[in-house]
Task: inverse folding
């Protein structure tokens, strides 16, 4: 992915902000996961799930509102969780 194609975040919803604080996820973690994702799929709850490495390399799940026709466009983040978290 070139610098021109880098994924950006337009907005973190309140739920995402709360989960980021609770789970110690930084904005850098979210951007790293989105820009280096290893899996991307639509979910039954009308969102898109990205899984990619956070800054430490640990896998991070990032749920965003649907991408529409521009998967590389700015995202609205719904929620985040480390892949190995049980809650």
Result:
């Amino acid at each position: 992915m070139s610098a021109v194609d880098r994924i950006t975040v337009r907005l973190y919803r309140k739920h995402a902000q709360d989960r980021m604080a609770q789970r110690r996820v930084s904005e850098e973690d979210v951007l790293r996961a989105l820009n280096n994702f290893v899996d991307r799929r639509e979910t039954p709850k009308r969102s898109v799930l990205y899984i990619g490495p956070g800054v430490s390399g640990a896998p991070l799940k990032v749920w965003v509102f649907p991408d529409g026709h521009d998967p590389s466009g700015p995202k609205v983040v719904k929620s985040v969780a480390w892949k190995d978290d049980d809650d």
